[in-house]
Amino acid sequence: MNVAKPLWVILMLTVAGGWVSSWLMAGDVQATPMTKPLQRQHRGVDLVALAPPSPNPYDIELIEPGKALDNIESAIKLIYSASPFSAERIDRLKSKGRVVIIYDPTFPKPDMASQIIAAFFPDHFQHDGFSREFRVVVGRFGAKWSEKELAAVIVHELVGHGLQHLEGKTKTDRKIDRECNALIHEEKAYQDFAYKRDSSEMVRFRRDMRQNWCGDFNRYMSARNIHTDEAWGYGKPDVPKLLEIFERYTAHLRKSGVAARALKATDTAKQQQFEAYLKTASKRNDAAEMFEIAGRFLKGIGTAQDENTARKWYLRAARANHPGAQFYLGALLENGIGGPEDKVNAHKWYSIAAENGINKAGIRKASLTPLLSLSELSIARERAQSWWSARRQ
Length: 393
Hints:
The structure is a single chain. With about 400 residues, the chain is an alpha/beta fold. The chain has 2 domains: about 10-260, no CATH class; about 285-390, Tetratricopeptide repeat domain (Serine Threonine Protein Phosphatase 5, Tetratricopeptide repeat). The chain has helices at about 65-80, 85-95, 145-165, 175-190, 200-215, 215-225, 230, 240-255, 260-285, 285-300, 305-320, 325-335, 345-355, 360-370, 375-390; strands spanning about 10-15, 20-25, 30-35, 40, 45-50, 100-105, 120, 135-140. The chain has a 5-stranded mixed beta sheet.
């Protein structure tokens, strides 16, 4: 019952009237159209459900947004009532930023393995406030899982991978080790939920965890005369103690350079994939793809972080009438990120984005207006009107 990890990154622009979400995969891009979400909050966790596509392109019935949020909320209630160990760690994330769980019925893509139930996506520092967000996306399969199964997967993604991201371990530890760590946290959740341990699903889960993802961890313990069966509790490990050993293991990998060499090889492969994608995407001049490229440069995904280049790609996408790019460009211009501060043009792009349905752009425009002189405001409005006039010709 292991949850496969996609090599995906999400850039999700939060706006008062909806979400602009774009799924990124090395060498492949699929844009999800803006849609008004259903939103609620439970135990300080923001819950968001995107509407299912119509007509349904999948071979399974899609759960409705309200029901999906009910299921996710029930899973969170279970975590807080039955697993203080996991709840305390979620609270730690909440103390550092915004924790969001999103139901997206279009996730995963049809050609991805159906066992991808949910995934954690790295936080995104929004330039209109520099807030930190930790996001888990639950897909069309995961939203239908039982309360205990869904809660355990949320712990895997949010506690396991969320804390790794908070602690900077995504930059120091190998993927296989991060997954082993997250699976150990998931194991703790199953214990706390009194999940039936002799079921075929749990037998497969523990076997896959120990033999595959945690194989190197086991070899580390054996080399140091740590009895692995005993460390794993003969099928029911003392997770806090096991995690203490795991921390020594990952510290050893960092000190020995094993982790650094593996990460360097991975980064090289990602860079090559991104360069190939960039070459083909540049020729297509597609607004959604330009938006994706800008986001990758802004965050350093598959390439070196380059805010100046990101701003140029946001400008290209904004000129092609991509609402999200128009909002982001306004934020970069307003804050002088990736180039000189330019509040006049920031006002222009906020205005255009607002007319394109980005409510948050209207809020930023209203905040920026008093900071401009009458002549600057006149220029900003004229530029926005001229842009629209050119688009309508």
